[in-house]
Amino acid sequence: MEVKKIFLPESELPRQWYNIAADMPTPLEPPLHPGTGQPVGPDDLAPIFPMPLIEQEVSQQQFIDIPEAVLEKYLIWRPTPMYRAFNLEKHLDTPARIYFKNEGVSPAGSHKPNTALAQAYYNKISGTKRITTETGAGQWGSALSMCCCLFGLECKVYMVKVSYQQKPYRRLMMETWGAKCTPSPSSETNAGRKILEKNPDSPGSLGIAISEAVEAAVMDEETKYSLGSVLNHVLLHQTVVGQEAQKQMAQFGDYPDVVIGCAGGGSNFAGMTFPFIRDKINGKQVEILAVEPASCPTMTRGPFAYDFGDTVQMTPLLPMHTLGHSFVPEPIHAGGLRYHGMAPLVSQLILDNLITPMAIPQLETFEAGITFARTEGFISAPETDHAVAALIREALKAKEEGKEKVLLLNWSGHGLVDMAAYEAYLSGKLKNYELPQEEIDRALSDIEPLPKPKQYRK
Ligand SMILES: Cc1ncc(COP(=O)(O)O)c(C=O)c1O
Hints:
Strand order of the largest sheet: 1-4-5-15-10-11-14
CATH class of the largest domain: Alpha Beta
Bound molecules: pyridoxal-5'-phosphate
Strand content: 15-25%
CATH architecture of the largest domain: 3-Layer(aba) Sandwich
Radius of gyration: 21 Å
Number of domains: 2
Number of strands: 15
């Protein structure tokens, strides 16, 4: 029998995170202060983040040691297994060899705890008592709740109200880990009260929830805020995924021709691909595919420009691919991919032609998820289904071309708390959303007056 999966021993857990900023062909342009338009300094960020994370955000050091206390708790679920997808290969009748790394084995069910754990640790040693954050469908909120609990911190999650009402299970996971979860907009913050005054029935949005979480952190000295994607330090923490994957591929005796991940803010994608992009910068032939929803085409149709990270314009301006901070994506089921921006690191690497972005419509992603579940057994999160769909496209392309390609997928999370989305698909209620160019143009008109990065590209 051929080897189906590789579990690395605990001794092979990476001891350092890989910081791609040290190897970028084009350095990142700096974030700008929303008020002055000048580059932000550490002092501007200090009310929101603890200093060790601010230092990592701007670090140029190629490898950063993972603290012992974080390594010890990574061992709860890391190293994660890598599988050869023999059954899917057979079903597709492809000459491609398909591998996937299972990040769904973490207690919260996705890659998100890889950074939540590190962020909770640095907050703890910096004297933080409480962390606030926002969550949409609840993947990030549940990951942070678990990790705050492991390090003895309080956690307060502002959950978009419509999800709070429709998706009770992730909220219950947060509460099981001891976090407080409040539907947003709430009457606890100025931002929430302002929205409720205008519209008492507001269903909420990620933008509003971010404003509430940031405000709650700024108002209290012992409280800090935490973000689950987009920022450099978040992507840094995820690189344990790709470093483990490189060791596992070597044990399989293979090296990927194509590495694939879905991208919402870019963190699971970066975690898997940055170590391979390092190889690519050093001369290896490897294609890197970032997959997004056709209804929220940040990378494929958004310009590279300075924009706010949130709807209410409280965050610094980041140089990134963006659809405009007022862009409201269609209510597709992959909640984690409904974000108007993309991580600056990922955006810059797209400009440098080291990453190829691609957009896939919703129905194809669920069809792919069903094929994956019926061959490999695992039910993917709707976000992950985007990467699975791209993987299947690549496997079928290899078949057409008669090429023995090696494909590697980051399977970012399971979908066991997202079965309502599968029900909607299986009962024929889901549809694709065509995004009219006028809608993008309208949202992009908001960023016209903002400063332009040097490499501004429409
Ligand atoms: C399972 C899963 N995959 C992917 C994503 C997208 O986020 P990111 O691009 O930061 O990995 C999310 C976000 O919630 C998620 O829950």
